[in-house]
Amino acid sequence: MGLLYTILIGLVIGVVAKFLMPGRDPGGCIITILLGIAGSFVASYLGQAMGWYAPGQPAGFIFSVIGAMILLLIYRMLFGRRR
Description:
Blueprint: H1 2-20, H2 28-49, H3 61-79
Helix pairs in contact: 1-2, 1-3, 2-3
């Protein structure tokens, strides 16, 4: 159930991260949503590694948004300014 919850929250997180970081993304909305899902997984893993969450417990909404925004920023830096 935790995996399904993380994926569903990640979809919402991707949309929220897109609204909080406006601008042109190299991959569009689908990539942003996938980055939101990845951000939710990263936030869950880091939160469990730091002891903020119990094993198997998904990350909270705010920490997932921060994780997605960080991944979106890294993605923009890597693929944003190609000509």
